[in-house]
Structures are given as structure tokens and as C-alpha cells.
Design a protein that fits this description.
By secondary structure, the chain is mainly β. It has four helices and 37 strands. The protein has three domains: 198 residues, no CATH class; 111 residues, Jelly Rolls; 76 residues, Immunoglobulin-like, CATH 2.60.40.1080. Helices cover 6% and strands 43% of the residues. The protein is elongated. It starts with a strand and ends with a strand.
Length: 457
């Protein structure tokens, strides 16, 4: 059961007119927050979570569980599909991506390196603490006859005159012909930053553009002038791999997600967009945003801002940074935004993605809690009565009722709305356009849905 910790708290103290906030405590160490600023306008959804709480945990998740998978979205996956597949109770989209399943920045899960670092900002965490920073990663392959190669990529398609390594997380190793793809067995060691592994060559494929990577194996692909650098390849050959990193206190790093730029550093606005390769329009224009930040107490805020819609204009990077400061963050990083910005809770997309639907993304930050239940059907136990005539401009107080007609206390409900209107966490629905309105409400593991027509004035 969820408990409401704050309801309809006006933001007049911070100078935001016509704005309200709701906070619903979902579990010890996990709170859901919604803000509705009607003047800007701007809709915000957020989690505040305590990494030290035994009731909740946060994990990075790769779309479809693999970097490369043959599907309609080139291995990308919607956030709602990721939460359903993993059993997470919620989450947000994370890193930027090149419209395939390969995140652009550093990704580490449970200590295992999944994607090399870029020059952009990183959010890292473990079971009790978190931080932000920039870093570098490097992997060196040691071959017979005292030869060595610095890898150009990790779990990514091999480019021209490059050598890359793909683990089982990649699914397959991709390289355009002519190429060499060498499959090695991992004898021992680890694929973590600061770690090393001993390898044994099992097989070699010539000009095969897609080689499967089984568990316990890695495939090293080479193209162009890097083919000869691999030297003679004979099954049984021994090799070794070392992975190095700079910029972070790596023994403390269990998970990471990439993003950029920084929003807040050491309690002050610290936007470094141009230094991280972002243009002026990205920074100065209002867009949908996703961000993650850390408070002085060590709690983590995961935030989305809807945008590019009449009901929510979005935010500039500076406005996003000020939001993170207002939430108490001393460090904060911007994540992928725009049409990727998505906030999911209990299997429901609570925010309104600017594409009009969820965009498949490359990875996500997911939240888990064993004491909470996502949707398990049973919606017939509840209903949402809606007036028979609703027109544009109407503001309607809604409630969930049980099968006996009794109203469910709003503090036990998580609301979501879509289509031609939106709903806040107080159950107030605003009809913003003519068309179809959609509602969903989560009540202790059960989701009830309804739809209705909204007429023009």
C-alpha cells in the first residue's frame, strides 16, 4: 500500500505561480513526485530513492538485454517493455544512442563493462552511494610473440581499420567484409574496469559479417589494417585482456549510465554543454528532458520534464539545472531527452512522450522493489466514473470506486492520463482538446483503465 506524504503543496515560496506538487511514498526509500506548473506550463515526474534502503534498488538495463538483436527497432526497446521484461516497478530512459541498441556513453552493470566511455558525463552508483564524473576507458589485447592491440570499440560494430571486442551481451559481433572474427573462450578473470582476463582462441571466421557470441566467450573483430595486426590465429592460442580506466574511483563503481552535459556540480549550476559537444539550440531551447541528480544526503533524484506540447513546454538546460537544485541536488547530469523522455511506474507511462507514443531506446535506469506489485490484472474490481458529457476546458475531479461503489482514497491511487487531456495526482482531469481522453489508475497492484469522448466547446 502506498502512503501520501504531501498533497497539493503550493510552490509560492519558490516563486512558481499556479503550481502544485504531489509526493506519494511507494516504499521506504522510494517516493514518486509529480509537479504541475500551469503557468509555464510544465509537467514533471520524478523518483526520489535511497540507495541504502533494503526495500529498493536501481539497476541499469540494456534494451532487449542485447546490444544487437534482429527486430523491428534494431535492438532498441520501449521503457514499458523493459520494465515488463525485467519485473521493475518503474524507470526512466537513460543514455543517448545512434538509433540502434548501442548506448553512446559508458555503461557498466554489476561491475561488467558493457559500453566504452565517451567524453561526456557519467552517473555511477553502488548499493549505498553514487556520484558523477567524466572518465576514460581502455582495453588492451595481448597476443603471442609479445604483440598487443588497443581495442577501438567494445560491444559495437567494427569500423574501418578498427578492432573491437564483443561479449555475450552484444549477442553477435558485427563487421563488414573483408574482416576477421576470432572467438575466444574466457579462461578466467573479469570484464570489469581495472580487471583482466585470460583467453583461449577457439575458432576463426573470415569475412563473416555477423558472428554469434555465446556465454563465456568474446569475439574480436578486425577490419582493414588491423587484420594483419592480429597476426596468425590458431585455435588454442593464448591471449589476455586488460581493462583500464581513469577519472572515477573504480572500486566503488558497480553501475554506470552515460549522459551529458553536467547540470549541477558541487551545489551550483555547472552546465558544460559546449565542452561535451552539445550545440546552443540543445541548451537554450525548451525540450523534454530526463535527468539524474544526487542530494547532499546521498539520495538520488530521477526526473523527467515533458515538452513540445501545449500542456508542457519543456525546459532549457538551465531550467532543468534549477529544477535539480530546487530538489536539493548537489550534483546532476542531463540524460537523453526529446522524444526519448519517458517515465514509467507500475507498468504505466505516466508522462506524455513528445512523439505521441513511447520511443524505443537503448538503455534505461530501472527501479525495483520486492515489496511492491506492478500490474496483475483484475481491473474489474474497480472503475473510474466519468461524466457523460465532457467538453474542452472542463476540469473534473475524478475518483476510483470499488465494486461496491466505495471511493478509494486518492492516497492509494497513482493516476495517468493521455489523449485529449491530462490528470494530476490529485485526480483532477483537464480536458485540453477535442477527441478521446484516456485514463489509467494503479491501485495496489491492479490497473483500471477507461476512455471517453471530449467534445469541442
Amino acid at each position: 500500500m502506498i502512503r501520501l506524504t504531501a498533497l497539493l503543496a503550493a510552490w509560492s515560496l519558490v516563486g512558481i505561480a499556479q503550481a502544485q506538487v504531489w509526493e506519494k511514498m511507494l516504499a521506504p526509500g522510494l517516493t514518486y513526485r509529480m509537479e504541475a506548473d500551469l503557468l509555464t506550463p510544465r509537467l514533471i515526474h520524478a523518483f526520489r530513492l535511497s540507495l541504502a534502503s533494503p526495500e529498493v534498488r536501481a539497476l541499469p538495463e540494456l534494451a532487449t538485454g542485447k546490444v544487437f538483436r534482429t527486430n523491428a527497432t534494431d535492438s532498441r526497446e520501449t521503457l514499458s517493455a523493459m520494465t515488463s521484461r525485467t519485473g521493475a516497478i518503474g524507470g526512466v530512459n537513460a543514455d543517448f544512442f545512434p538509433f540502434n541498441g548501442d548506448p553512446l556513453g559508458l555503461m557498466i552493470r554489476n561491475g561488467e563493462l558493457l559500453s566504452f566511455a565517451s567524453k561526456r558525463a557519467v552517473f555511477w552508483w553502488n548499493d549505498s552511494e553514487s556520484g558523477v564524473g567524466t572518465c576514460t576507458t581502455e582495453a588492451i589485447l595481448y597476443l603471442p610473440e609479445a604483440r598487443s592491440l588497443t581495442l577501438d570499440g567494445w560491444n559495437e560494430e567494427c569500423g574501418a581499420n578498427a578492432v573491437t571486442l564483443n561479449t555475450a551481451v552484444a549477442g553477435v559481433s558485427k563487421a563488414a567484409a573483408p574482416c576477421v572474427q576470432a572467438t575466444y573462450r574466457i579462461v578466467d578473470g573479469s570484464l570489469s574496469v581495472g580487471g583482466a582476463a585470460r583467453l583461449e582462441l577457439e575458432s576463426v571466421a573470415l569475412d563473416n559479417p555477423s558472428v554469434p557470441v555465446p556465454e563465456g566467450r568474446v569475439v574480436i573483430a578486425a577490419r582493414g589494417n588491423k587484420v594483419s595486426a592480429l597476426g596468425p590465429l590458431f585455435p588454442g592460442n593464448a591471449a589476455s585482456l586488460t581493462i583500464r580506466g581513469t577519472g572515477l574511483d573504480w572500486p566503488r563503481v558497480k553501475h554506470t549510465l552515460g549522459g551529458g552535459p553536467f547540470l549541477v556540480r558541487n551545489g551550483r549550476i555547472g552546465i558544460d554543454a559546449s565542452q561535451q559537444g552539445f550545440n546552443a539550440a540543445f541548451s537554450a531551447n525548451r525540450h523534454p528532458r530526463t535527468a539524474v541528480g544526487i542530494t547532499s544526503e546521498g539520495d538520488v533524484w530521477v526526473v523527467t520534464v515533458d515538452g513540445r506540447q501545449s500542456i508542457s513546454a519543456g525546459a532549457t538546460l538551465e531550467e532543468t539545472a534549477r529544477l535539480m537544485l530546487r530538489l536539493g541536488c548537489v550534483d546532476a547530469v542531463n540524460l537523453d531527452g526529446g522524444g526519448s523522455t519517458t517515465f514509467n511506474l507500475f507498468g504505466i507511462t505516466l508522462n506524455r512522450p513528445s512523439d505521441g507514443r513511447e520511443r524505443p531506446v537503448a538503455n534505461a535506469l530501472l527501479v525495483f522493489s520486492d515489496g511492491l506489485r506492478a500490474a496483475n490484472g483484475g481491473g474489474s474490481a474497480y472503475s473510474i466514473p466519468v461524466p457523460s458529457a465532457v467538453k474542452v476546458g472542463d476540469v473534473i475531479q475524478l475518483k476510483v470506486v470499488d465494486k461496491w461503489g466505495g471511493a478509494v482514497p486518492n492516497l492509494q491511487v497513482v493516476w495517468a492520463g493521455g489523449g485529449a487531456g491530462w490528470i494530476d495526482q490529485g485526480g483532477l482531469f483537464r480536458a485540453s482538446a477535442a477527441g478521446k481522453g484516456y485514463l489509467a489508475a494503479w491501485i495496489d497492484g491492479i490497473i483500471v483503465r477507461t476512455s471517453f469522448d471530449i467534445a469541442a466547446k
